[in-house]
TrEMBL record:
Annotated DUF5110 domain residues: 645-713
Record InterPro entries: DUF5110, GH, Glyco_hydro_31_C, Glyco_hydro_31_TIM, Glyco_hydro_b, Glycosyl_Hydrolase_31
Organism from which the protein derives: Bifidobacterium oedipodis
Swiss-Prot/TrEMBL keywords: Glycosidase, Hydrolase
Superkingdom of origin organism: Bacteria
CDD domains for the chain: GH31_u1 (cd06595)
Protein name listed in UniProt: Alpha-glucosidase
């Protein structure tokens, strides 16, 4: 039996008791001032309150006592903090007797009364998208346009330290039990429009997002299909032949015996016995996946317990005091420490020693256990996550030092148990359109690591363009996991699609793998700073109305803005559009270097049009984005800290970025290596990009690296002005080249010591490139499905009058009679006109 005493409240970071200086209390009520904007309200008929951690709340002592004043006036308690005024009549909570006003909130509904509906809430997330076709109403988050939000923790179970539970020895150290007191327990988040601060304090209350292992940021392959070992090997080898990187193999339920189950035992939905017909030697198969750079997870449906046909039945029965000869089913029971200990020790640990790296907990059977209020999904997530992080010296714990589960969302606080599986969606454009909004909004409840069924799971219809656009969303999702059902027509392998669709899919998969260095730095940011990878636009722009009107747009880390295409292309223009709001500043197309100006404080709304392989992703001026490149002797699926990197730098403003890397040790034992990159920009004097020597744990990174620094959105002539120094000594780059299609100047440096400082100076300044308007307009017109004479007239007008005068036409505000006449006679389709307008009005 594995000793799990390390699963203590201290290890979980619990500090459940609020300091007495921040507590106001009567016989049956208690108000705890956690921050000047976060208040806990409790009512207990018995006068006894909850000072233990709950499933959601771990920390109620934030380390300092907030400033507040409390006075009694006319039988009322009046509490003032910097951001709230609270009035309470000291009676049982009621709408009339308990309310709070958020100070400085620019909202009509900035006063909360007890039991108010949260009409202004900006949403959180939802348990599962199983069977959903399109949108679904979301649960509440902790931010609201009204300035306040409420989380009700009244029905939560508590987490206690105990060596024994109901007469059973408890090897876990902690356990989840019902509350001994019936209390009302509310948390009021009164942060106004300080949305980011509200989420940060939610993390303090509920626990931080853990640091994920590096491999999860690559591509995952998943399919509900009866793979054999031979077929799976052939699939991986085909991926390798096609140069398609994958880091995670998700093996659905048919790894175990499903069909050959005697009906007296029920169905084969639950199972723990390898199907030896498909996988004759599981350890060999899992070892082969590891040799090819992939981690492996298996799907489990534990509801039906352990039945007599299972290989592990005898051991499980004996562990539970059941005579194996009786063939009595060992019932699945999350409320029993004895069962859960055997569940891990007899069922899961042996397979982990064979090579299973983590588990896909596919619980779909409701929310009832033998314990009142305990959701089995939450219990599975909690215990599996803790068990996956054990340090027992086994081959498993050495191979996987960071805990990981893969399961559905089970309520506020579930971010402690990543990664999330959002469920089996329907294959439609409506489903795709909902997922960017669903992903971004989940950050409002701190749930940052969603994994969707990229490409859609089941039913629906075949639409190759839809699949390509879903792959592109996947590249800019927290976790990129391709998935589909077992239809012979629904495989997501790129070679199953026609040429341009396959090309777009391949491009998206390779892009995703290249972004691992950037994603891993954002992984650290999520764990250390409390900032999820994907965030709604209104987090940074709460007073800009347009920030609330682009539900499919989001920030992807600190450097990128993404608005994925979620609707089909218009035939006349052979492109699809995305609605984009660009905040104030200068922005660049991440891929092409085209420049977009948003000079007004309120930002700029535009339609952007892209062909099949185009993704609307933008970097702000000053942006720095690290990408990994496959070194000559490096495996395709490698996720180690790369020896070869390309750094994309976007001109127009100063910028800085820290590349964070580590050895992948457990979070408690982890040390970091950091490489600071700075960009000092000037249009008419020297511009300098610098890579500092590695700081911290230098053993985590290669001793030397090949760097490619790419300045995107710059003119070609600056190639002649680039000087490079390493540790102050001039060096000759291996190569300097310019790519006209992406307006990119690239400088290659080989074999640079990680301990060296690199400086690239563009002497005399680095001007911004002019957008190639005429060439880009020609590209739009070339593919437009309109009369040739119409194209010729439009192109002649663009060439004749240039961007300045033609921009009026693009905006549909033409006043020049000559231009007006030419286009009025052309019968140009509206979508073609809008695509041209984007080209002509970019900057």
């Amino acid at each position: 039996m594995v000793q799990r005493s390390a699963f203590s409240l201290a290890k979980m970071g619990a500090k459940p008791v609020t300091g007495s200086d921040a507590v106001l209390q009567g016989d049956r009520w208690r108000i705890s001032i956690l921050t000047d904007s976060l208040i806990r309200f409790e009512w207990s008929e018995s006068g006894r309150f909850v000072d233990t951690p709950t499933q959601m709340a771990l920390v109620r002592d934030f380390g300092c006592t907030p400033k507040f004043e409390a006075v009694e006036r006319g039988g009322w308690l009046e509490i003032d903090t910097e951001h709230l005024h609270i009035s309470y009549d000291r009676q049982a909570f009621s709408k009339e007797g308990l309310y709070a006003t958020v100070k400085g909130a620019n909202a009509v509904g900035n006063t909360w009364h007890y039991s108010d509906e949260q009409h202004g809430n900006l949403g959180g997330t939802y348990r599962t998208l199983d069977g959903i076709d399109g949108a679904v109403p979301l649960e509440n988050g902790v931010i609201s346009r009204d300035g306040w939000a409420v989380l009700d923790d009244s029905r939560a179970n508590i987490i206690v330290e105990s060596d024994e539970v109901d007469g059973e020895k408890n090897p876990f150290g902690t356990w989840v039990l019902p509350k001994t007191e019936e209390t009302t327990d509310l948390y009021l988040f009164g942060y106004g429009h300080r949305y980011r601060e509200a989420v940060h304090d939610f993390y303090t209350l509920t626990g931080a997002t853990p640091l994920l292992p590096r491999y999860v940021f690559g591509n995952w392959w998943s399919r509900y299909h009866r793979y054999t070992e031979e077929e799976y090997r052939e699939l991986v080898e085909r991926f390798e032949k096609e140069q398609l990187p994958f880091t995670t193999a998700v093996i659905d339920m048919d790894w175990h015996v499903v069909d050959d189950v005697d009906p007296k035992y029920g169905s084969g939905w639950t199972g723990y016995t390898w199907n030896r017909e498909f996988f004759p030697d599981p350890q060999r198969f899992l070892g082969w996946l590891h040799e090819h750079g992939m981690k492996a997870t298996l799907n489990v449906h534990p509801r039906d317990g352990v039945r007599a046909f299972e290989d592990a039945y005898a051991d499980m029965a004996e562990a539970m005091g059941i005579d194996p000869g009786s063939e009595e089913t060992v019932q699945f029971d999350l409320t029993s420490p004895r069962f859960m200990s055997a569940y891990f020790d007899q069922l899961h640990h042996p397979m982990e020693d064979e090579g299973v790296d983590f588990w896909w907990l596919d619980w779909q059977q409701g929310g009832v256990t033998r314990q009142k209020g305990l959701d089995p999904l939450w219990g599975l997530n909690h215990l599996h996550y803790l068990d996956s992080g054990r340090s027992d010296g086994s081959s498993y714990s050495e191979r996987n030092p960071r805990p990981l589960t893969f399961s559905r969302y089970a309520g506020p606080g579930s971010h402690r148990y990543p990664v999330g599986f959002s469920g089996d969606t329907i294959v439609t454009w409506e489903s795709l359109k909902f997922q960017p909004y669903f992903t971004a909004t989940a950050s409002n409840i701190g749930y940052g690591w969603w994994s969707h069924d990229i490409g859609g799971h089941m039913f629906g219809y075949r639409d190759e363009e839809l699949e390509a656009r879903w792959y592109q969303l996947g590249a800019f999702s927290p976790i990129n996991r391709l998935h589909s059902t077992d239809s012979p027509f629904n495989g997501k392998e790129p070679w199953n699609f026609r040429g341009e669709v396959e090309s777009a899919m391949v491009k998206a998969l390779r892009l995703r793998h290249s972004m691992i260095p950037y994603l891993y730095a954002m992984n650290r940011r999520a764990a250390v700073e409390g900032d999820p990878l994907v965030q709604p636009m209104y987090w940074d722009h709460p007073e800009q109305e347009d920030a609330y009107t682009v539900p499919t747009e989001f920030m992807f880390g600190t450097q990128l803005l993404v608005s994925p295409i979620v609707s089909p292309a218009e035939r006349d223009v052979q492109m699809a559009k995305a609605d984009v709001w660009l905040p104030e500043g200068t922005w660049f197309d991440f891929f092409t270097g085209r420049r977009y100006s948003s000079p007004q404080k309120e930002g700029r709304r535009i339609e952007v049009w892209r062909g099949m392989d185009g993704i609307p992703a933008f970097a702000k001026a000053g942006g720095i984005i690290p990408l990994q490149r496959q070194a000559r002797d490096e495996a395709l699926n490698a996720v180690s800290n790369p020896q070869s990197l390309e750094i994309l730098v976007f001109p127009g403003a100063d910028g800085r970025f820290t590349l964070w890397e580590d050895t992948g040790a457990s979070e408690a034992d982890n040390t970091w290596a950091s490489t600071l990159m700075t960009w000092t920009y000037a249009a008419e004097r020297d511009s300098v990009f610098a890579i500092d020597p590695v700081a911290g744990d230098a053993s985590a990174v290669p001793a030397s690296r090949d760097w490619t620094v790419t300045f995107r959105g710059v003119p070609e002539f600056v190639s002649e002005r680039v000087n490079v120094t390493v540790d102050g000594m001039p060096v000759r780059p291996a190569q300097i080249r310019y790519d006209k299609t992406t307006l990119s100047l690239s400088v290659d440096l080989c074999g640079v010591a990680a301990s060296s400082r690199v400086e690239l100076t563009v002497c005399g300044g680095l001007p911004l490139s002019d957008n190639p308007i005429v060439e880009d307009a020609f590209a739009v017109l070339k593919d437009a499905q309109v009369h040739y004479r119409t194209k010729e007239k439009a192109y002649a007008a663009i060439r004749r009058f240039g961007a300045a005068s033609i921009a009026g036409f693009g905006a549909m505000e033409v006043h020049d009679d000559d231009i007006q006449g030419r286009f009025a006679q052309s019968h140009m389709p509206h979508c073609v006109m809008q695509a041209l307008a984007e080209v002509l009005l970019r900057a």
